[in-house]
Every structure is written in C-alpha cells, then in structure tokens.
C-alpha cells in the first residue's frame, strides 16, 4: 500500500471507535431505504420481462440476482467512502480523476437519474388519476392541478431533510412488502405450471446466452438503487469512520437479500400462474403485472389494491431518486463557479425540480421511456465500471484489488451496457 492510501487509512483510524457498534435502528432505516429506492414500479413489470425468456434463463437470472446487484452497489459505496470526509460521489470523482472528469461524470450522473424522476412524476399522476376515475368513480381534477399537488406533497417530505426522506421511504416499504407477499401468496392456489411448461425445452447454448444477454439489464435495473448510494456512503462514513465499509457492506447485504427474496418470490408466483402466451399478451398491452392480473381474474380486491401499491412503489422510488438527482444538480451548480449558501442551494434545486417535474407530468409525453433507456448505459457505467476502474487506478482503493468479485462486476457491467446499446439500435 503506498503513502497516499496509508494516509487515508490513518486519517480515519485516528477518529474511529475501537470496534464496530452493534446493529441499530438507523441501520435498519437505511436498509429499508435502499430497498425502497430499488424496488419500485419496475418490479411490477419484472415478471413479464423476466418470464418471457423461459424457465432456464429465469432460473439462471435468479441465481445471479444477488451477486450482480450486491457486488456492484458495494463497489460504488466503497468508491464514495474512499474520498475525503463529507464528499459525495461528484466530489470523489473530482478528487480522484481531476476537475474535468469530475464535471463530466457529474453531468452524466444528473442526466442519467433526472429523467427517471420525470418518469415517476408522470407515472404518479397517471396512477392517481386512474384510481380516482375507475376505482373511486370521482372525476379527477385538472391534470395540471393534480400533478402539482402530488409533486409538491413529495417535495414537502424532501424539505424535511435527507434523514426524513430515508425514514419516510423505510416506512413506505412495510406496506409494499405486505402487498407483494399478499399477492404472491394469493396466487399460489392458481399456480398451473405456467413457465414450467418450457422447463423441458432446454434452449441451445447460443439462444440461451442471447436471452440472458438481453435479460441481464432488466434484472440489474430492477434492483438498482445507485441514486441513493452516495448519500448512504456519506452518512456511513460520518457515523462509523474507519468501520464505515464494514457496516455499509452489512447493510447492503441484508438489503439485497430482502430485495432478492421478496421480488423473486413475487416473480415466480406470477410466472407459475400465467402462461408464456399470457405474459406476451401483457407485454403487448404495455400493462404492469398487477393490471393484467386484475383483468385476468376480474378480482375487485386486486383492481382496488393495484393502483394503491403502484402509488406507494412510485412515491418511494421518487424520493430515493430525488436524492441522487438533487446531488447531481447541486454538483453542476457548484462546479459552474456559482457557490450559493447551503439553504439557498437547496431552495434553487427544489424549485427547479418542482417546476420541471410539474410541467412534464402535466404534458404527459410518451418519449420518456426512450430517455430512460438512453440513461441506462450511463447508470451501468457509473455503477459497474467506474468503481472497478478506480480500484485499479486509485491508491485509496488499492486494498480491494485482486478480488474475484471485481472481474464479475466488470463483466456484468460490460454485458449490461452492450445489451442496452444493442436494444437501442435494434
């Protein structure tokens, strides 16, 4: 280990407690906050996208789900932790790679996350409007008014501070977990083999690899919570000092185990209920699995619960992505040479987010899905490749070199990016 890496370790050793404290309520809150950012509206489309590939690709993806997501997010967390005290991801990039690289990554980081925030704004407005009209039989207010009230309500939570956001998300996770469990268990009596009909049809190696290649990005981004990782790492370093990496890894592993167990149970319950043809029909109709199941069973309980679950899923993911988007926008403002006070900067960012999200939610454009897809390769590069490159080049991360997980994360990142680029060009 060279002198720079040693100085980083010594700086934290001096201020750190002798040993790591026991697990506490704040750790649980962060675990649920990470879960809340990752498991959102995309989960409701995952059974369709993952199930269409057939039985064997789905089994392989299920086995890869935990290592793919855990090692990648742990790498990004380690990257942020390698910076100076209080530095977020945009500061750490500048610290390790220089001012120009810092500005470029900050720009890409913002434009990869912000469109997702816009998509959630549109989705939230559509979900509530549909719920009012079809379930409550109430004429929705004008779209401009409805979207403004909804976004303003979420930003009111944001104004209470980062810890309030994480706490609100962790509280929203509980009903979401209960709802997913309820639906998965409800479907058990309706299991008819579904995807098992393809189990005897072992695909040719080339066809299997092609299916996995295109499906890996779907799985990766169904568990993605990179927008909140920077704030998570900064808080861990502030709380635990030299023990931050150890505790953050514990929190990440528990969060990912919860994500994988919950979501895969839900996915397998859905695909064991519906045939491959029905999954294809749901995809053609551009419906979430909840909407399709409600129509399939003509069940008023599911029809009423589906939009409520979607509302919770979208709201908590909105809050988690807001942290990342606001962090990127603040970084852009500061790197442009303007340095307003912390409170003024918060107000500027909140006002910008409110106005843009409100306008887009009101206009309800259909182009947003394409924007999200374009942002996918950037998120994959930041989540998978940048931390692995830093491990090779940055002295402060030298301790992580030589681990097999680094090769695995790099390979998955390259596969995800190539599949996303292929999908765009297809």
From TrEMBL:
Pfam families: Trp_Tyr_perm. The chain crosses the membrane at residues 30-48, 54-72, 104-124, 144-161, 173-191, 211-234, 255-274, 302-323, 344-361, 367-386, 407-425. It is found in: Cell inner membrane. It is a multi-pass membrane protein. Keywords: Amino-acid transport, Cell inner membrane, Cell membrane, Membrane, Symport, Transmembrane, Transmembrane helix, Transport. It catalyses: L-serine(in) + H(+)(in) = L-serine(out) + H(+)(out). InterPro entries: Amino_acid_transport_2, Hydroxy_aa_transpt. This is HAAAP family serine/threonine permease. It comes from Pseudomonas monsensis. The lineage of its organism: Bacteria, Pseudomonadati, Pseudomonadota, Gammaproteobacteria, Pseudomonadales.
């Amino acid at each position: 280990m060279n002198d720079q890496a040693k100085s980083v370790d010594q700086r934290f050793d001096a201020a750190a407690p002798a040993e790591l404290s026991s697990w506490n309520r704040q750790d649980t809150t962060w675990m649920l906050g990470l879960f809340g950012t990752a498991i959102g509206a995309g989960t409701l489309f995952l059974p369709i996208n993952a199930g269409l590939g057939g039985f064997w690709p789905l089994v392989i993806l299920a086995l890869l789900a935990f290592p793919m997501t855990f090692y990648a997010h742990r790498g990004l967390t380690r990257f942020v932790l390698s910076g100076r005290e209080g530095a977020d991801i945009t500061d750490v990039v500048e610290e390790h790679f220089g001012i120009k690289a810092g500005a470029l990554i900050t720009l890409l980081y913002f434009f990869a996350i912000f469109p997702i925030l816009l998509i959630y704004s549109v989705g939230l407005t559509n979900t509530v409007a549909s719920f009012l009209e079809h379930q409550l039989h109430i004429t929705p207010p004008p779209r401009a008014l409805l979207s403004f009230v909804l976004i303003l309500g979420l930003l009111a939570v944001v104004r209470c501070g980062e810890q309030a956001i994480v706490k609100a998300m962790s509280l929203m996770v509980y009903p979401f977990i209960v709802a997913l469990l309820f639906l998965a268990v409800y479907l058990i009596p309706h299991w008819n083999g579904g995807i098992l009909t393809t189990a005897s049809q072992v695909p040719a190696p080339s066809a299997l690899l092609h299916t996995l290649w295109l499906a890996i990005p779907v799985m990766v981004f169904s568990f993605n919570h990179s927008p909140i990782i920077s704030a998570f790492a900064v808080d861990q370093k502030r709380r635990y000092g030299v023990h931050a990496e150890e505790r953050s890894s514990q929190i990440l592993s528990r969060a990912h185990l919860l994500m994988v167990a919950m979501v895969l149970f839900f996915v397998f319950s859905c695909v064991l209920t519906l045939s491959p043809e029905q999954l294809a029909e749901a995809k053609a109709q551009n419906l979430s699995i909840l909407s399709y199941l409600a129509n399939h069973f003509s069940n008023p309980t599911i029809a009423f619960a589906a939009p409520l679950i979607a509302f919770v899923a979208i709201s908590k993911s909105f809050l988690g992505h807001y942290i990342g988007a606001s962090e990127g926008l603040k970084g852009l403002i500061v790197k442009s040479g303007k340095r307003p006070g912390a409170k003024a900067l918060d107000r500027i960012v909140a006002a910008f987010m409110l106005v843009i999200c409100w306008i887009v939610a009101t206009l309800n454009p259909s182009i947003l899905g394409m924007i999200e897809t374009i942002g996918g390769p950037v998120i994959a590069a930041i989540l998978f490749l940048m931390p692995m490159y830093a491990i090779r080049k940055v002295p402060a991360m030298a301790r992580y070199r030589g681990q097999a997980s680094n090769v695995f994360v790099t390979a998955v990142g390259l596969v995800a990016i190539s599949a996303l680029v292929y999908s765009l060009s297809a």
